[in-house]
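Hi X.,

You mentioned you wanted examples for the new student's onboarding notes, showing what a folding record looks like when two proteins sit in one file. Here is a clean example. The first protein comes first, with its sequence line followed by its C-alpha cells.
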Amino acid sequence: MRLSMYNKFTQLKLLSVADTRFASIIVMLKRFKLVKRALESMVMSDEWASYREDVQDKARFVRDKVLNEYWWDQVNYILNFTAPIYDMIRAYDTDRSCLHLVYEMWDSMVEKVKIAIYKQEQKPLDNFSLFYDVVYEILMARWAKSSTPLHCLAHSLNPRYYRGEWLNEDLARVAPHQDAEISQERIKCFKRLYPNVDDHDKILNEFAIFSLKRGPFSDIGSLSRMGTMEAKTWWANFGAQSPLSTDEYLDEKTKMWDVGGDEFSAMEDTGFLELAELSLDEPELETVFFSENTN
C-alpha cells in the first residue's frame, strides 16, 4: 500500500539501505532530497490521512518528519559536509591511474569538509569546532591506515605540484620537495626501490635536478607544460635524461606496503563517529530497489 501510494507521486524509485557501510546512507539521503516534494505531497494527501488504523502512529511519525524543515536542514548539512569525501572516493575508485593525485586530493577534501562544517556552525575557520575535530580525526585515521610512502613519491613526481600557478592558489601550499612529511616518505621509497648505493645516489641527483627545475627541466617547453600536461605524458616528453625516475614500480619492491582493516565497534554519538570508517558501496546499492514485497 505504501509503495503504491508513493509511486503515484513520483517516478523515482526509493533505494534500499544496504547492510554495508558509510556511503549507502549518503546515497539514500541524496534520493530522499530528490523526492522531497513528492514525499510532502504524499503525506498530505487524503489517502495518507486514511491510513489503516493499526499503523496510524507510524504514518503520523513519517508525516511529521517529512514536513519538518529542521529535519531536512539536517539532511542537507550531512550531504554538504560529506560531499567532498564522497566525491574524492568516487574520483579514485576507478581503473584510471591516480596514485599521483591522491595526496593532494586528500588535502583538498579535508579543507572542503572544514569549510562546510564551519559555514554551518557560522564560525571563523580559525575557531575550534568539536564536531569538525571529531570528523578530522576520522579522516586522519583513515589516511594513516590507507596511505603508503608511494603516495608521497607519486605526489613528488607530479610536475603540476611544482607549478607556480598551483602553489599560488593557496598560500599554505609548498612544492613537494619542500614538504617535510612528503620528503620523509619519498626518502623511504628511494631507499627501498634503490638499495644499491650508486643507483641511490643517481636517483637523488635526478630528483634534485627535476624538483629544482635545473638542466633539462629548465627548458621553457618543460616548464610551461608542468601544469597543463598529464603527468605521464609530461615525463614521456621531458624525462628522458632522468631514466631512473619512472612509474614502473616493481611488484616485489612495493607489495605489502598497504595496511588496512575496516572493523569498528558500535558506540553512541561521538564515540561511534570516532571509530567509524569510510567506504563506497553505491554500485551495489544502486541495484537494490524497494519491491512490491518490501515491508
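Then the second protein repeats the pattern, sequence line and then C-alpha cells:
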Amino acid sequence: MLYCVCLGHGIILLLFLFSSVVSVYVEAYDNLLSGPVAQYTALSQKIGGDVQKHVRNASVLTSLLAPMSKVIQEVQAFREKNRSSPLFNHLSAVSESVPALGWVAMAPKPGPYVKEMQDAAMFYTNRVLKDYKEKDKMHVEWVNAYVSIWTELQAYVKQHHTTGLSWSQTGPVASASRGAPAPPPPGPPPPPMDLGKSSGGDSGATNHNALFASINKGADITKGLKHVSDNQKTHKNPVLKAQGGPLPSGPKPFAARPTAAASPARTLPPVLELDGKKWKVENQEGAHGLVISDTELKQVVYTFKCNNSTLQVKGKINSITLDNCKKLGLVFDDVVGIVEVINCKDVKVQVMGKVPTISINKTDGCHVYLSKDSLSCEIVSAKSSEMNVLVPNKDGEYTEIPVPEQFKTVWDGSKLVTTATEIAG
C-alpha cells in the first residue's frame, strides 16, 4: 500500500511504502497529521490572506521524490513574490523551515536535520509572536501549531526512522500510484535558505539567540574547522544527497533567472582554511554552522562570496572583512581593529564582545547587533542603504535604530555643514 500525505501549498510531506498491514509508524504518523498539522491548517484558513494561500493543497502525486524539490521551491518563491505582504513573517517562517520535508532522503541522522530547519524559522516565528501577542491570539496559536509540527516530527523520526526512512521489504515497487511506472529522477534542489529580510517593518526588540540559533549549537561545532565537510556542501539538497550526485546551482532570490541560451555559471569550490595569518572563507553556499575557533590576535578573517550562510568567529582577532556576500550571518567575539562590510547585500553582524569600528560600504541591507560592551563602537557608512543598528535593552532584547541614508548640506558662510535628514527616501 502506498501511503502519502500532502501539507499546504502542495507540499509532499512523506511517502511510505508499506505492506497490507498497517505499521506502527503509520499510525504514529497519522496521529501527527491529525494533531498539529490539522490545527496549523485550520488556523491558516482562519487567518486568511496570503497565509491561507500558502497552506492550500494543490498537488497531485506523480512520483516519489521528484516533486519534493519543485514544491519546496514553489513555497519559497511564493514568499519572495509577496515580500510586501502584511503576513510576510508568517510566509517566511514556513519558507525557512520547509526544507525539513527532505528528511526522507537524509541518512543517517534525519532527526537533527529537521531540528536544524525548525531553528531556521525561529527568527520569523518570534517576530509573529512579538507583533501579535497583544493583538490577536490566533496568530500566537498559529505559531505554536506550526512549531509543534516539526517538534513532533522530530520525535516521530527519532522513534521510527532514527537512521533513515524505513521501507517495506515485501511490498511492491514504489510508484506514485498503483500501476504507475517507476518515478523519474528527482528534480533540482530547493533554493538556498533565506536568512531573513533586512528591510521594512522591522521595529522593536529581536532576540539575538533566536536570530543565530542555527549556529549557536554548543562546543561541538567550535573545534577549529579548517575545511568544509561534504555534509555542509550538500545539506540543503537532501534528494541529491541520497543519490550521491553533485550539487547544482538553484535559483537565488536576488539573481536574475538566466535565459535558456545563457551559459552555466562557474561554480568555485568552497574554502574555509588558514593561509598564513589570514582565515579565508570563500564561495560558501547554504553553509550553516561555519565556525573559526582556533584564533590569534594577529590573524584576520576574509570572507568572500559567501551566500545564505552563517559564520561564527571565536576569540579575539585583528579584523574581519565581508566582501561580496549575500544573506550572510556573522557572529564574532572581539575584534581589536575593524569589521568591514563591502559590496554586500542583506547581511547580519552580531558583536558578542567589543569592536572599535564597523565600516559599511556599497552595501544594501545591513543589520548590526551591538553588545553592551560595544556601545561605543563607531559605525562608518558610505554608498549604502537599509542599515540598522540594534541596541540591547535591560531586558535582554533589542531596540532597532535606522542609520540615516539622506543628508542635508548648507553653506554657513565659511564652510559646508552637513546633517542627517529624516526625509523618507
